Description:
five-stranded antiparallel beta sheet, 5 helices
Amino acid sequence: MDYYLDLEILPNAEMGKNIVMNVIGSRLHQFLVVEKGVELGTSFPDYSKNPRTLGKRMRLHGTSQSLDRVAQSEWLELLGDYVHVKDVQQKPKSCKYVDVRRVQAKSSVLRLARRYARRHGVSLDEALALYKNVSDKKLSYPFLSLNSNSTGQRFNLFIKQSQPHSIARAGKFNSFGLSKTASLPWF
């Protein structure tokens, strides 16, 4: 991940930055699903938990070739009125690193009980009884609001970005540009 590409949301009275960031996240995900050979990491230079925001910039990390493919993609060109695409650049020689992860809460007791009932062949009432002492959990992380291509349902992709640290870790990235193990350059 020696190169990066910044996508900066332009001020716009028609669409708020959160809506534009959701569109970028959705289109990037679709691009990464189709373009199997492209592996990218995603970070958010303006990330903040308080106030809760991903900010106005999405930074893509990868090889020069992969980032060029993104920069020249049709989906990004269509967002030209809302997003300024900066040039692909090499990361600084000296930098820190951050971990950018997806966070999922055990948010709905009913959902957990339905899943348990389906997986273990028990009734919903039996499964609900097992979860009677569990309470719903809410997350306070910034998120992208996306539509699932497989189910068509809307969901929130909560993102936890660590504080900068000095340890670079390798790993694989998923189709959202997130990794369970890898770190990304931070500058």
